[in-house]
Amino acid sequence: MSGSALPLPQRLPLLPLATGLLALLLWELLVRWARIPNVLLPSPGSVAGSLWLAAPQLAWHGLATGGAAVGAFVVAVAAGLVLATMMMLWPLVNRLLYPNLLLFQLLPKVALGPLFVVWLGIGLPSLLAFAVFVSVFPVAIGMLTGLRAADANQVRMCQAAGGSNWQVFRHIRLPTAMPYGFAGAKVAATMAFTGATVGEFISANAGLGYMVMQAQAKSDTPLIFAALAVLCLLGAGLYAAVGVAEDAARRRWGTRR
């Protein structure tokens, strides 16, 4: 590698940025060249104008969606960790819960959204419950896979030295499961926003999902794209926060081992 060349980790972030900018440029040129109406496909310039004009409303509705998604994410992570730990420590619990988790994952979740409204009513409780329901599976399965991936020889050595089940879990299984758990949490971070937005489609009077439905009723397609852009930014922010937490956990665990 020449002295003037950037190291690969420093060059990589430029690649997706350049790809995104190129895609926006091609999108703008296509809309202008084909003279596509705004109601069918707005240009990036139209979306940017809608972002500017509706910035206060987008910020307010984005705060509602972001708060609901982050709350659902925190609950889903906690529930997923508890479920994975219970299924790991108690085989009977694993036999009872694991098949049901898989069954619920196979169900069409969007179709189940109205049931949460029937059970919990219109508003935040049903929205949060639906978002948690959508998000909990990747955390539980990822963490359980990690707990089961612990080295069997290390487990036997710890037990032979008089280690309790908790010590085996704390010092061997949990560190092994950490990357798996964070991988599941990253998936859950995106799913939480999906669940919150779909929940807002069904039962909400605020949030980006609600704003999209209102814009659709007015055929304001640029505003729909603007709301989706804000939603992407919020989801990316939560995903990045999970990545920062993972890096911190890796450093902390590395000092202990």
Radius of gyration, whole Å: 23 Å
Mean pLDDT: 86
Order of helices and strands: HHHHHHHHHHH
Helix vs. strand class: mainly alpha
- What is the CATH domain class? Mainly Alpha
What percent of residues are in strands?
under 5%
Indicate the overall shape. Answer: elongated
The CATH topology label is MetI-like fold
Helix content: over 70%
Separation of the first and last Cα atoms: 34 Å
Number of domains: 1
Largest sheet: none
Which characteristics define this entry?
257 residues, mainly alpha, MetI-like fold, disordered N terminus
Structure description:
With 257 residues, this protein is mainly α. It has one domain (43-256): MetI-like fold. The protein is 84% helix and 0% strand. The chain has 11 helices and no strands. It has helices at residues 8-11, 14-34, 44-53, 55-89, 91-106, 109-120, 124-148, 152-160, 165-202, 208-217, 221-256. Helix 4 packs across helix 7 (124-148), helix 9 runs parallel beside helix 10 (208-217) and helix 9 runs antiparallel to helix 11 (221-256). The relative contact order is 0.13.
